[in-house]
Amino acid sequence: MRMNILQAGDTVLRRPAKPLSPRELRTREIENLIESMRETMHQAPGVGLAAPQVGLPLQLAVIEDKPEYTNEATPESLAERERAPVPFHVIVNPKISFDSEPTVEFFEGCLSLAGFTAVVPRARKVTVECLDEKGEPKIIHASGWYARILQHEIDHLRGALYIDRMYTRTFMSTGNLAQYWKDKPIREVLELCGVQQSNRP
Ligand code: ZN
What is the pTM of this model? Predict the structure, then answer.
């Protein structure tokens, strides 16, 4: 079942989500929720979706970066972003630790801020301890674009959105990104948008 994706301004997007016990996780209800979130993420399309985005204050998110999402990207841009396909998986009750400073700068979007994008600095490497959909403990070591996705989704479970971390001067419509900025190096984007070096990590 395709679910409605809430937009910024809905209070559930700003509240910390509740952890799920392994027993709660193994219910038919949660199994159905995961399936619906998967379908909703695919149809959007997006590379991640957190339960608060569909109105449920639960510490659960689905992630999948499909190869076809990057069909039009150049090998250089994929290499720069360290972006590679990530198979479908579920993270529950994640604890994140940052293995590097938030110094990787790229445009990022969110299904709950439809039509907008901004440059967001993120850590290149993270470690995430969580449960999978069966309630089994899991440790994820991620870098590059996958690390960015994890940071973005885990922010959702804390009531945070990328607009809390973005360089505000780079906030723009996705249409304008495609028309004016997409092929410019990030360093040039930051300069033209007037992001001061002193405001950066
Ligand atoms: Zn998001």
Answer: 0.96
